[in-house]
Design brief:
globular; single chain; 11 helices; alpha/beta; about 325 residues; Rossmann fold
């Protein structure tokens, strides 16, 4: 099969189109013929080597986390899917590889594709929607009437998180440039802060929750817009020792993460604010719940661009530029 392979970690790395064997199908796996693959910042961060400590992949590596396609083969113990089913998934860590013609994924990480979405739209959903779900529903238990600040509302996670938060009954504030305001209003954002002209810390106060996806400075300011006993959940770091324990990492990595997150943890404690780091995980059951919301029209995908498979490196460059509104997708078949 054709697949894009990472041979060397580098900030200027390119993926190489190569001939690779079709993945082996384990007893609980479904083999998916890939029709479309979603691109994520996580892919570019892995390429640069930024995640080498947390995710020590062996090279060469087929990249790609999001997929939509058709089941072409099932393992001997698969019970939820049949050959010919249209499915989508966020492949689990250490079994990624959606920048290819086929991928084998454990059925527990797979869900049936929403019937009202194209393959390209479906491929844009899994990683960002699961991130939003695990932040707002699982970790924060966001309730009706609460206030949530979702940073970078026009990004992949932001566009889905705003819609999910509104479904949960929350009041939503977000940051973006003014040219994105119309889009974000249609998604349900209540308060729009133009990050080019306004300081969100001067506008927002006494929030129950912040979904942080930006840099250290923004994270530090976010602690100050949350009310006492509120929560700041970051998907951009720094990771905490608790996260290292969940990941069952080495004692050395636990020590390193303790050091790099000590400042923000102390600042949060001083303000009586909860701080945690979330690194989303694959979860087919949660994706099936998200499917229900998509088919009901509650959540709609926001796709910026669809590239052909032979322009995957150009698509990765566009992702890395930070200009995308919503998601970028590659059409494989």
């Amino acid at each position: 099969m054709k697949a894009y392979v990472l041979n060397k970690y580098s900030k200027n790395a390119s993926l190489v189109l190569s001939n690779m064997p079709v993945p082996e199908v384990r007893e609980h796996d479904v083999l998916i013929e890939i029709h479309a693959a979603g691109l994520n910042l996580l892919d570019s961060k892995i390429m640069s080597g930024e995640f080498k400590l947390m995710l020590p992949y062996k090279l060469p590596l087929i990249l790609g986390h999001d997929v939509a396609g058709i089941v072409s083969k099932v393992g001997s113990k698969v019970s939820k899917f049949n050959v010919g089913d249209e499915v989508y998934s966020r492949a689990s860590d250490y079994r990624i590889g959606t920048f290819a013609e086929f991928i084998a994924i454990d059925e527990k990480d797979v869900a049936h594709k929403p019937e009202n979405l194209s393959m390209e739209e479906a491929a844009s959903i899994p990683l960002v929607a699961l991130t939003a779900w695990q932040t707002l529903v699982e970790e924060a238990n966001l309730q009706k009437g609460q206030q949530v600040f979702i940073q970078a509302g026009s990004g992949g996670v932001g566009t889905i998180a705003i819609q999910l938060a509104k479904h949960l009954g929350a009041k939503v504030a977000t940051t973006a440039s003014e040219k994105s305001f119309d889009l974000l209003r249609t998604l349900g954002a209540d308060i729009l802060v133009d990050y080019k002209k306004q300081d969100f810390e001067a506008v927002l106060k006494d929030y129950d929750l912040v979904l942080n996806s930006q840099d250290k400075k923004t994270l530090e300011k976010s602690l100050r817009v949350v009310k006492p006993n509120g929560k700041v959940i970051s998907i951009s770091g720094p990771p905490t020792p608790e996260f290292a324990i969940k990941m069952k990492t080495s004692w050395f990595l636990k020590f390193v993460l303790s050091l790099i997150s000590s400042g923000i943890r102390k600042a949060a404690k001083k303000l009586n604010v909860g701080y945690s780091f979330l690194f989303m995980r694959a979860d087919g059951k949660q994706l099936a719940e998200i499917t229900k919301l998509i088919e009901a029209g509650t959540i709609k995908p926001v796709v910026d661009k669809v590239y052909p498979f032979n322009q995957l490196n150009e698509a990765m460059s566009y992702i890395a530029s930070g200009r995308a509104k919503g998601k970028v997708v590659v059409k494989v078949k």
